Amino acid sequence: MAEPSGSKRIMRPGDEAPTGTPGTDEVVCPECEGAGELIGKPCIACNGTGMVNRRPENRESA
User: Which of the residues 6, 18, 48, 62 has the least number of beta carbons within 10 Å of its own beta carbon?
Assistant: First the structure.
């Protein structure tokens, strides 16, 4: 699927892949536990959003 012109997929430092990448899910940031900040400053892993994109660790076959 083509991206609209001028758009970029921005990755947060804690992301394993850009948003919308097949096979990834948005999950609670493991560094700040979803708070978006650590010691009163924005979390650097999630850029203060409290969420990161990760590949699921446990995939069970059906």
Answer: 62
